[in-house]
Sequence to fold (270 residues):
Amino acid sequence: DPVPPLQVIRPEPCRVCGSRIRFGKTAIKCCQCQLLLHTKCREQCPSLCTPQSHHHAWPREGVLADFAPAAPPLVPTLVVQCVTEVETRGLTETGLYRVPGAEQLVREWKRKLLRAGGALPALSSVTDIHVVCGVLKDFLRGLKEPLGEGAASPLTLLPGAATDIPDDAASDTALRHVVSKLPPANRDTLAFLMLHLLRVSQSPDCKMDVLNLSRVFGPTLVGHSSANPTPLAIMEDTPRQCKVVARLLSLPPSFWRGFVETEQENLVPV
Fold:
């Protein structure tokens, strides 16, 4: 039961072809099952709404907790595997996370990993490390809510703590408090990702300092100032989103390690 075409505000994957529907493009959403797809994919869409059986595979989109393991730290295996692969052979690559990987390969590997569920295929066969970076970014973008958002932490709190408190020490205290109140899977994954991005920023070969990384990850990790932002609001939110990630990366690594170093063996990819 499609509704008239709507304009996409937050990029989401098409549930038919898997390709991301970009900002400002038109899409179709089913009134009954909320399935979202490109207008061009309408003919390939089943005419009847049927429940999706995931078996052992992950959902194609969802909140982060849908992908998290049962035991802490609650970091999805896909995130662990991408980060491990990047740190194994990518820290000498210039423009890590800024240089795009081939979109078709990113799409194919993201689909393959999501369908695999728990035991993921090895990323070592992906020749271009920028494709692995693209899979991680696309996975985070495809979540129903940003990583820095959750029921216990309204999306306005992180930007407020990062940008509205002039005193750095007070701002750091507020940020730590907000992070600690995030849903556990969001909190642990954010901590794991921050530690990774700090290592990327410290690699002279990558040429990706905190400012560059905050520009790349700001819109992905931080929510907007309203639930249904206008294009103008999205543009106005971008500097604040980048400032939030820069402030998060300014927190000491010991703070982030406190969330993920318990039962560290659980972070070894399958």
